[in-house]
Amino acid sequence: xDDAWLPATPIPFWKMTGSGNDFVVVDNRSxxxxxxxxxxxxxxxxxxxxxxxADGVVLIGNAGPGDGADFAWRYVNADGSxxxxxxxxxxxxxxxxxxxxxxxxxxVLATAAGPVRADVxxxxxxxxRLAIADPGPLRLDLPVDLAGGPRTVHAxxxxxxxAVLPVEDLDGFGPDPAFAELGRAVRRxxxxxxxxxxxxxxxxxxxxxxxxxxxxxxxxxTLACGSGAVASAIVATALGRVAPPVxxxxxxxxxxxxxxxxxxATARATAVTLGGEARVVATGELWPEGL
Length: 291
Known about the structure:
Layout: E1 11-18, E2 21-27, H1 38-45, E3 56-61, E4 71-77, E5 82-83, H2 87-99, E6 106-111, E7 114-119, E8 127-132, E9 138-146, E10 149-157, E11 161-166, H3 176-187, E12 197-205, E13 208-215, E14 220-222, H4 226-238, E15 246-249, E16 255-263, E17 268-277, E18 279-286
Parallel strand pairs: 2-3, 4-6, 11-12, 13-15
Antiparallel strand pairs: 1-2, 1-18, 3-4, 4-5, 6-7, 7-8, 8-17, 9-10, 10-11, 12-13, 13-14, 15-16, 16-17
């Protein structure tokens, strides 16, 4: 089925943005999009200029009887690959579920990376806070040989893999294609057999970072990355550059709030939370011809 599938009738959708990460969100509890068609649907609907355009698709489903969750959350990248976790996608999925009365204001999402707790204090306010599983392991000082010369990155998994590259000048990469080229090279480097996201960070002060992210699965720089903000804050803390709570300013200019308990003896972060905005851009119906 996959790329050949087209819906018989228009599909209701919400277009949402999490600090610049944009998503097509669909209530798929009734199976509007069959499992075999999900990857192809995501590839087509995420095309900018030809369809709705997005970094990825968030599908809301029914939680299993043993999940201990209010609903199932699935994230599919723009290239059709599944992502075990997406921080901004989870933030948007939580607010969508609350606004549509699928879940209470304090709810649990069943994700491929484990249960995620969300708090949507006021459904009329886009601010959402997540409590996520402990990230790790943390691998510091990984040498990466690239065409432009050697780089040192720091790797950590936050549901999905991240490589963090501290720099002094985040704007020093030159034109945007230069950063995308660097991100692509690190993403496909042999040091990361499953691929990785790249987060370049610059420390502004003891509690603030700026971040640019090349996202695996989107295969481009995005305006924000929630899991990348968590990875960046933890790495910068491990390097002694900041201390939680940490504000991470994304490429869009919108901040993400990261907090956690840091355990220097074991180089681990626990009780990790991520806060950001889930803005509703538009609601509507996706026509089959739009795919």
